[in-house]
Known about the structure:
Blueprint: H1 8-19, E1 23-29, E2 36-44, E3 49-50, E4 57-58, H2 63-76, H3 86-89, H4 106-110, H5 121-125, H6 127-130, H7 138-143, H8 156-165, H9 182-196, H10 200-209, H11 221-224, E5 233-239, E6 242-248, H12 258-261, E7 264-265, H13 267-279, E8 282-283, E9 286-287, H14 291-297, E10 302-305, E11 308-310, E12 315-320, E13 323-332, E14 335-342, E15 347-353, H15 360-372, E16 398-401, E17 406-413, E18 416-423, E19 427-435, E20 440-445, E21 448-456, E22 462-467, E23 470-475, H16 480-484
Antiparallel strand pairs: 1-2, 1-15, 2-3, 4-7, 5-6, 8-9, 10-11, 11-12, 12-13, 13-14, 14-15, 16-17, 16-23, 17-18, 18-19, 19-20, 20-21, 21-22, 22-23
Helix pairs in contact: 1-15, 2-9, 2-10, 8-9
Amino acid sequence: MRDRLDDLDAQIRRGMARAKTPGATLGLLRPGHAPLVRAYGFRDREHRLPATPRTMYGIASVTKSFTALAVLRLCEEGRLRVSDPATRHLPELRLPGANPRHPIRIQHFLTHSSGIPPLPTIYYTTMRNGRRDPPYDPRRARRVGIDPGHAPIDTYEGLLEFLSKEKYALLGPPGAQFSYSNEGFGLLGAIVERVSGRSFESFVEEAILRPAGMRATTFDTGILFRQPEVTTLYSPKWNGRRHGFVPSDEWWEDSSMRAAGSLRTNVPDLLRYLEIFLTGGRVGGGRVVSRASVAEMTRPRVPISAGVHYGYGVLVRPDYYGNLLVAHSGGLKGVSSMIAAVPRKGIAGALLSNAEGVPADRWLATAVNLSLGVPTEADFEEVPPAVRSHASPQEFAGWYCSGEGIWAEFRARRDALRLDFRGIESIGKNLLLRPAGHDVFVLRRKGEKSAVRFLRDRSGRVRSVFLGWRVVRRRARSELSRAAQGRMVW
């Protein structure tokens, strides 16, 4: 009988060629089969060193699922509850406009619903590396409101001080709005450290990595480089509408935000980790976390889009062709990552790449869909089809900007929108968005598509746009001059 995955290699290689991706490694778990691990391209393109099953990559925001499990382990031990107000463990945290009668709780950080808007914190916590990084352009950073002269944020105390003293407004009351927040997960790292009495990294290692047999996985760059096969990192080099990738050996370090995205690992280790979701907390016969903790983590909690929710540190789609799907992606300098699990079917997979901004989610979706026997083109997060609309898009036109360095100008064109996008890490000009329903448009770029949803205030005025899982507020054009001075525009 012909294996459903026979055509997978060719599909991934075609996708990598289109995205100019140097290297990637894929892993799959399927009932009745040995774990499948396949590598493509190069871990070091310049020296023609191939990617292999054991190649070490960054996983970026896939780390957030480990952080959520660390919090739930502390819950199992009775040392905290997800319903605890954050200030019970971080008393110096004073977010502007926070209401003590309706406190931000640990569960709000776990679900990106604390109300913290996109902020530039990740660039200040990695500032020491960023200043040495060849692709880093301080001029571009300043143009989008990131201050390249800002003092580095190296400690949890520095992170707490920045979040408490910087001038910005919360998006709304806790639990009311999903907006992806690295800062919230950085604060979870501080909570884990204070409650456990250990460093965040050592607690994760002892509570999760060692019990799961993840011997190669680490937060520590020194330990990373003792591994025999560590990938080179590749960042985009932009040239108008076209781009390639340039190599760099500068791994970003962020000691106060490691809980948001700093784990490094290989695919075999990630497959061991994914057993937790297939077995209800066990790996290789040993228990890592309780079945109840896995159920809590993978319960749909805050809606992201139609049929898609966020649980604790993972995306949750309750009805993916009749099955629960648990997944998460990650992106950072030199990193594109994706994990997914379908517990009812015993199927799970991971894909890691050494280039940022490439469609790792699409390639892993192809592999998982082939294993499930569903259409290979199905996306883990469904994008609505474009529709004909006679409504004017003029009310959506304008500038939308965030403190995280996301700047987007939407221009009305008959029944469509044109988007000029620029940021500290990526740019794009004259991108076409077609209407796809009430306040929703579809953006197609480099063969990929994504939904862009506009949000209204109580008076019905368009106030922000949901872009890249972030709520990005509408701003006046006159505020562009503030960004030119390196001042945050939130």
